[in-house]
Design brief:
The protein is of the alpha+beta class and 272 residues long. It folds into 3 domains: 2-192, 7 Propeller (Methylamine Dehydrogenase, Chain H), CATH 2.130.10.10; 195-226; 229-272. It has helices spanning 160-164, 195-225, 229-244, 247-264, 266-271, and strands at residues 2-6, 9-16, 19-27, 37-42, 48-53, 57-66, 69-79, 84-89, 95-100, 104-109, 114-120, 128-131, 137-142, 145-150, 179-180, 191-192. The protein has a 4-stranded antiparallel β-sheet with strand order 4-5-6-7, with no helix packed on it. Strand 4 (37-42) and strand 5 form a beta hairpin. 17% of the residues are buried.
């Protein structure tokens, strides 16, 4: 994909058969002339565009699939001050640093929309800035001097909104609840929504109770009224002992000791 900017319009071209064709033309102001475009930066991974407007607003855009057709879509806005001078995207994560004319430094994480850093770090905005490959050091150049600052920016992707609300991730057609902590892709963005885990746990517990409650009630009735006294003297203390043990210990014993026995006699257990 090739992007060409003409004022506040963005021309999106795609390559096919050794030539570029215009896919679409986007008005980055969205019809509001006061949001005229100053600069455009690529977020880490080169999938999202960060558009800096003259009024200090920063908007994020990336391709989504709408009606079986890819289109560049406006995702979210960051309302920064009009004194914004330039942006510096992170090397690998989906965040960016913003430098202001008065020396203020801010860091935002796009997905969680979290303001990670807000500090008056310089007397004035540095002439140039760069981020180390491991994202631990911020290097700035100003007044013929080079400064290196260590950045403590752990887990910027985690916030209350990213944990419990729908989030619009790159490559998704709409905001969704997603849990995906790892991937084989280098450009992967970790997704930490707790909603799928919470509802999955509740659903698993409800399905388990559909079987466990009838078994427990019928087993108790059988033990109390129909089981022989000799067998009851063995079964009843064993169940009471299991009630006293934490479920973690029972699960540990089941996985470490009982599961190998079942594996060796699987056909017999199934037949029984």
């Amino acid at each position: 994909t090739l992007y060409l900017r003409d004022g506040s319009e963005l021309i999106v071209l795609t390559k096919a058969a050794q030539k570029f064709t215009v896919r679409e033309v986007i008005d980055l102001t969205q019809g509001d002339k006061k949001h005229s475009v100053r600069t455009i930066d690529l977020l880490a991974g080169a999938y999202s565009l960060l558009v800096t407007h003259n009024d200090g607003r920063v908007s994020q855009w990336f391709d989504t699939l709408q009606n079986d057709k890819r289109t560049l879509t406006h995702i979210r806005d960051f309302k920064l001050a009009s004194e914004l001078k330039y942006l510096l995207p992170d090397s690998h994560r989906k965040g960016f640093y913003s430098f202001y004319t008065n020396g203020t430094l801010q860091s935002h994480y796009t997905t969680s929309e979290k303001l990670v850093l807000f500090k008056r770090a310089y007397k004035q905005a540095p002439a140039m800035a760069a981020m180390s490959n491991n994202e631990r050091y911020l290097i700035t150049w100003n007044d013929d001097s080079l400064k290196v600052a260590e950045v403590d920016n752990s887990y910027p992707e985690v916030s209350l909104s990213s944990l419990w609300q729908k989030v619009w991730y790159e490559g998704y057609p709409e905001p969704e609840f997603v849990w995906q902590s790892t991937s084989a892709s280098d450009n992967f963005e970790a997704k930490f929504s707790l909603v799928p885990i919470a509802f999955g746990t509740i659903k698993a517990a409800m399905f388990a109770m559909l079987f466990s409650v009838p078994l427990a009630v019928l087993g108790a009735i059988y033990t109390a009224y129909f089981m022989s006294p000799r067998m009851r003297r063995v079964v009843k203390p064993s169940i009471e002992l299991m009630e006293a043990l934490p479920t973690v210990i029972i699960g540990f014993l089941a996985g470490l000791w009982f599961a190998p026995i079942v594996e060796d006699h699987l056909i017999t257990v199934v037949v029984m």
